[in-house]
């Protein structure tokens, strides 16, 4: 009788242990599946995000490479150093013979007219020249002043003899706009500050003429 009870208790204990083991194995399987599923979602999200970032970068590059509406271009511009004034065919000038000394053109804002021959030399170094006439709104001039002071290889000055309120000039390239809110301004700066058009990339924009 005692032996039978002992066997029954032993069998019940073994059954209980086996039940606990089955439950533990089930939990382990669920945890593994949950871990794998979570990792898959994370990896998929990272991969998707990576593709998104790459796609966004490609879109920005394509936008920068696309032609900017309204930009005029000139080619075969001479680069001789002269000591006389030059009669440029465009206003403001975007290239041609120029003075051997450039105007300082690194985040430089001038409030008086610049000598064109020195300004053109700065364009040869890869700078962008921002000019405005008396039809430009005061708020636009202030906004452009702030932008130039934050952008290396740019300079700004008043220039009355131009056909638009605001003009941006790089070597061989020019854009005329009516207001500082025109989105093409930033695209012009992104494209032509030390851009591919630069005859002397990396040349100094300081140590020149300070007006």
Automatic annotation (TrEMBL):
Pfam family, one: DUF3105
Annotated source species: Streptomyces ruber
Annotated transmembrane regions: 33-54
Source species taxonomy: Bacteria, Bacillati, Actinomycetota, Actinomycetes, Kitasatosporales
Protein name as annotated: Membrane protein
Swiss-Prot/TrEMBL keywords: Membrane, Transmembrane, Transmembrane helix
């Amino acid at each position: 009788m005692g032996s039978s009870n002992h066997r029954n208790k032993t069998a019940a204990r073994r059954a209980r242990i086996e039940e606990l083991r089955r439950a533990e194995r089930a939990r382990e399987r669920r945890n593994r599946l949950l871990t794998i599923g979570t990792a898959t979602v994370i990896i998929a999200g990272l991969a998707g995000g990576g593709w998104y970032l790459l796609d966004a970068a490609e879109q920005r590059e394509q936008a920068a490479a696309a032609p900017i509406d309204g930009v005029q271009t000139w080619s075969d511009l001479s680069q001789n150093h002269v000591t006389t004034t030059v009669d440029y065919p465009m206003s403001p000038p975007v290239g041609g013979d120029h003075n051997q000394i450039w105007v300082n053109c690194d985040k430089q804002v001038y409030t008086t007219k610049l000598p064109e021959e020195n300004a053109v030399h700065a364009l040869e170094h890869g700078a962008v020249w921002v000019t405005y006439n008396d039809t430009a709104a005061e708020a636009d001039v202030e906004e452009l002043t702030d932008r130039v002071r934050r952008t290396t290889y740019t300079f700004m000055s008043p220039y009355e003899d131009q056909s638009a309120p605001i003009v941006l000039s790089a070597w061989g390239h020019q854009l005329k706009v009516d207001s500082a809110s025109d989105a093409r301004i930033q695209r012009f700066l992104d494209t032509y500050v030390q851009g591919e058009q630069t005859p002397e990339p990396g040349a100094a924009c300081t140590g020149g003429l300070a007006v």
